[in-house]
Amino acid sequence: MAFRSDLDALVLSVLQAESLHGYEIAKRINAKGETAFHAKEGQLYPILHRLENEGKIQADWIPQEGKPARKVYRLTETGKGELEKLVESWREFSLAVDSLLAPTKPEASRG
Amino acid sequence: MAKKPVLNPIEQFLALSEKRLRGRLEPDKVATTLMEAREHLTYRAEELMEAGQAPDAAMAMAAETFGQPRKWTREILLSENYKPYLQIANGISVAACAYILVLKPLWTLFLKSPSGGEVTPGYLIFSAVLTALLHLAAGLGALIARRCAVKPILGIIVAGALMFCIGLGFMTNPVMSQAQKSLRDDATLLQQGIRAYSSKTLPNVPAALKMPEGFVAPIARKRVSSLEDVGSGSTEIVATEEMAASRWRDYGALRLAECREELGQIKRLSDWRLSTPQLLLRFGANNFNAAAALLGTVLALLHGVFCLMLCGVSAQFGRFIHRVHMAWLSQDKIRRSPIN
Question: What is the reported pTM?
Answer without folding.
Answer: 0.46
